[in-house]
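Question:
Now give any protein.
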Amino acid sequence: MKLSHIDEHNHPRMVNVGEKKVAKRTAHARAVVRLPVGAFNQIEKEALSTAKGSITQTAILAGIMGSKKTNELIPLCHNISLDSCDVEVTTNRDSEIVIECRVEARHTTGVEMEALTAVSIAALTVYDMCKALSHEIEIKEIRLLEKTGGKSGYRHEIS
């Protein structure tokens, strides 16, 4: 197997997707942000809000904006017009904020980088909004859960 973004001279290249068929492409990604228990309890008590505003709403907007800027942030990504980008922010009992993103487009290439960028930017936004409470915040997971469309799909079995 060879890397698609490296040419025969070992130079970086953008993959030519011009001959590929337009198809419905989807991707689902997740990021998990762990906060120290005290900091987590404080933001939960404040309904996930800080002096900077709503953590949830700000992270959702940041994630959507990040997905739309993926080709500007990741050098060899194609510019993809997204049909939809849904970001969801929830909490769990492990003092974690869980961010999930589902992206959809009709294009010649996949949208997993857009979903991964969305959850990454949203997680960094959570960190930024909560860092006054603690610098022990950890972005502990960023992963692709599923992608569809094109010649290969992917699904991570969630346990």
In short: DSSP finds four helices and seven strands in the chain. The chain has one domain: 27-148. Residues 57 and 89 are 8 Å apart (CA to CA).
